């Protein structure tokens, strides 16, 4: 609770956090400040406490406060500028009776709504172009805009009739055929076209499989550290979540897990590969506990040395593994196309579930992607960007080693669009990432990807790395490690 002076600001009210309740700390902070702005207890032009000061006062992470401030900014209630305390804006939408906190028409979120709206990610601030060196962000300058536009024009001419109605909600048949053939050849995936479900994002695929194969209270296993999208999907569905180290032996006593999420081709965020022995062990483990493996083939297109091992889906028996992929990294996130290869026995049921969830994709974009792959443009594009990303990753690793020596744990990336560097175990990687964010670099702290034992590090994107950009980043990182930036 606080009502004392924090930084340069004085709040005439208290924030009493319920640390045992179901409502996230971020939501509690956001709601209290929002309600007091509505009541006029915080006036236009008044400064809120700095994120550092409020986090220290409430004994929460700075990322928790930054996320609450970002929600207020998104509503137009405060303005947030790098290096300065948030300032309350002129508020009109909350004036009058609608602003009263105990208004009888006000409704709170359900428990499910609270779970789904809890942000587990580190959220960088977006400018006009977005933050620099953000992990998972592909190169926009290398995107083949003209070739993609040509495929879109062809799709606009060819798609008609039933394709524009309510048929084919699980995927345009031409794209299902193309992807089934492509994934079989490139990744060893065994699938009939009707098993390839097309969705807007890999997160939508995760949500579909989670809702269809697990009930609230069931156990899901994820890697530690691991992908926050999977954690969000599982916790949002009310599942219990336990972790396992990607390269450790699985427990001898089989837990009753329903789902096991892995990124075997290029583990996120550490960047390691799962060897064949480990893959077979994982499939056997899943069979023992009756779980389905959700294989996210993360960054498999961007391995810099040799060919990737065959997908888990092609190694297991039918129904052992659901294979998830996306073109968000190989093309651009804004294309909004992903896919999941589902067990054949559940095609009809999952098609209904997909329609119920509304997780369907635009047919013109689907037709364009099918054309883009069939014409050979996709393979050519992958070859070009793979070579570019390898050079960019090596550049970043080389200059980090030259600048920081043993101060950072730097391993050259074997693939992907990002690399993880380790900090001193006592370092506050959230604070370092926040300082970098204020300087325009959207790197992520490694600790937020951990549930059990946080590790200090930074996940750094390099898709558009150049000598000048990397040198600017090294300058900003040195200052941030020394506590400068706010």
Average pLDDT across residues?
86
Secondary-structure-derived class: alpha/beta
Gyration radius, in Å: 24 Å
Number of strands: 14
Order of helices and strands: EEHHHEEHHHEHEHEEHEHEEHHHEHEEH
Number of helices: 15
Sketch the major β-sheet: 7 strands, mixed
Write up what this structure looks like.
Helix 5 crosses helix 12. Helices cover 38% and strands 11% of the residues. The protein is globular, with a radius of gyration of 24 Å. The chain has 486 residues and is α/β, with parallel strands linked by helices. It has a seven-stranded mixed beta sheet, with helices on both faces. It has 15 helices and 14 strands.
Task: For the structure shown, list the relevant keywords.
single chain, 486 residues, alpha/beta, 7-stranded mixed β-sheet, 14 strands, disordered N terminus
SSE layout and pairings?
Elements: E1 5-6, E2 9-10, H1 25-38, H2 51-58, H3 62-74, E3 78-79, E4 87-88, H4 111-117, H5 145-158, H6 173-187, E5 196-199, H7 202-213, E6 219-223, H8 228-236, E7 240-244, E8 257-262, H9 276-289, E9 292-296, H10 312-315, E10 321-326, E11 338-341, H11 347-357, H12 363-374, H13 377-404, E12 418-422, H14 429-438, E13 444-445, E14 457-461, H15 467-481
Parallel strand pairs: 6-7, 6-8, 8-9, 9-10
Antiparallel strand pairs: 1-2, 3-4, 5-11, 10-11, 12-14, 13-14
Helix pairs in contact: 1-3, 2-3, 4-8, 5-12, 6-12, 7-8, 13-15, 14-15
Task: Kindly summarize this structure in a few lines.
This protein has 486 residues and is of the alpha/beta class. The protein has helices at residues 25-38, 51-58, 62-74, 111-117, 145-158, 173-187, 202-213, 228-236, 276-289, 312-315, 347-357, 363-374, 377-404, 429-438, 467-481, and strands at 5-6, 9-10, 78-79, 87-88, 196-199, 219-223, 240-244, 257-262, 292-296, 321-326, 338-341, 418-422, 444-445, 457-461. It has a seven-stranded mixed β-sheet with strand order 5-11-10-9-8-6-7, sandwiched between helices.
């Amino acid at each position: 609770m606080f009502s004392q002076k924090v930084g340069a600001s004085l709040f005439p009210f208290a924030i009493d956090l319920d640390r045992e309740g179901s409502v996230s700390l971020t939501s509690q902070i956001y709601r209290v400040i929002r309600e007091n702005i509505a009541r006029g207890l915080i006036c236009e032009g008044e400064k809120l406490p700095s994120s550092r000061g409020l986090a220290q006062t409430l004994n929460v992470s700075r990322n928790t406060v930054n996320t609450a401030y970002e929600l207020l900014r998104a509503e137009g209630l405060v303005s947030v500028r790098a290096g300065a305390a948030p300032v309350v804006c002129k508020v009109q939408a909350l004036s009058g009776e609608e602003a009263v906190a105990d208004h009888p028409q006000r409704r709170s979120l359900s428990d499910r709504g609270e779970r789904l709206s809890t942000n587990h990610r580190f959220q960088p601030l977006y400018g006009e172009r977005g933050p620099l060196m953000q992990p998972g962000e592909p190169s926009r300058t290398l995107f083949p805009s003209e070739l993609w536009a040509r495929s879109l024009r062809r799709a606009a001419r060819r798609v008609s009739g039933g394709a524009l109605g309510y048929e084919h909600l699980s995927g345009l048949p031409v794209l299902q055929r193309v992807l089934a053939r492509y994934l079989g050849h490139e990744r060893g995936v065994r699938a009939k076209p009707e098993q390839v479900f097309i969705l807007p994002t890999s997160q939508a695929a995760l949500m579909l499989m989670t809702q269809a194969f697990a009930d609230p209270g069931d156990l899901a296993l994820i890697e530690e550290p691991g992908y926050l999208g999977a954690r969000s999907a599982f916790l949002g569905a009310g599942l219990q979540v336990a972790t396992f180290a990607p390269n450790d032996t699985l427990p001898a006593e089989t837990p009753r897990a329903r789902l096991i999420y892995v990124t075997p081709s290029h583990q996120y965020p550490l960047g390691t590969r799962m060897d064949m022995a480990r893959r077979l062990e994982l499939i056997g483990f899943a069979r023992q506990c009756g779980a389905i493996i959700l294989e996210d083939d993360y960054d498999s297109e961007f391995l810099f040395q040799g060919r990737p091992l065959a997908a888990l889906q092609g190694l297991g028996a039918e129904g052992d593994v659901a294979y998830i992929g996306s073109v968000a990294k190989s093309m651009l996130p804004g294309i909004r196309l992903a896919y999941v290869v589902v067990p054949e026995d559940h095609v009809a049921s999952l098609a209904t579930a997909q329609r119920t969830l509304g997780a369907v994709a635009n047919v013109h974009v689907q037709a364009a992607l099918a054309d883009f792959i069939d014409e050979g443009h996709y393979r050519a594009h992958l070859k070009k960007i793979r070579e570019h990303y390898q050079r960019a990753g090596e550049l970043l690793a080389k200059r980090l080693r030259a600048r920081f020596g043993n101060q950072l744990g730097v391993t050259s990336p074997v693939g992907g669009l990002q690399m993880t560097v380790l900090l001193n175990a006592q370092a506050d990687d959230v604070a370092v990432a926040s300082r970098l964010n204020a300087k325009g670099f959207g790197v992520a702290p490694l600790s937020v990807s951990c549930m059990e034992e946080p590790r200090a590090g930074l996940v750094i994107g390099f898709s558009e790395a150049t000598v000048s950009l990397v040198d600017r980043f090294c300058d900003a990182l040195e200052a941030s490690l020394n506590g400068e930036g706010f």
